[in-house]
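Appendix B. Chain record.
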Amino acid sequence: MNNNLISAARAGNLQELQAFISDHINLDEQDEKGYTPLIIACYNNRYDAAKLLLEAGADVNAQDFGGNTALMGVAFKGYADIAELLINHGADTDLQHGNGGTAIMFAAMFGRNELVEVLLNHGADTTLLDARGLTVLDLAAQQGNEEAITLIEKSMAD
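Structure tokens predicted for this chain:
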């Protein structure tokens, strides 16, 4: 693993990232946790770095060793602009990690309701079940996230 590549992604260092891209470095190389440069850039709110990596061909649906994607990370963190970027580059809104969680489940559980709305607008499946048999609606209810419940119910009625 090229730790300099991961560091450049974490810092959002576009010059360094461009140099790696020019050197044809594998942009989907994973670190010891399975994080790719794209996952790291997104999780650290580095929009321009994420955009550069995506335009250079980074795998938008790459998963870390727990099955988490860049979209799941931004849903957890609440970065709607990066979620839109990822979805516009083909991110699968319905991929499930090791425990069956999806991006919209993360958003609902952590009160990232702008992300709940973004994901619903892009057709996220509200019927998927996690490993415990819970839907996004169940998870929002568990957390007392009334706004997410309202958004999800409205989406399901449409």
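Further analysis of this model is presented in Appendix C.
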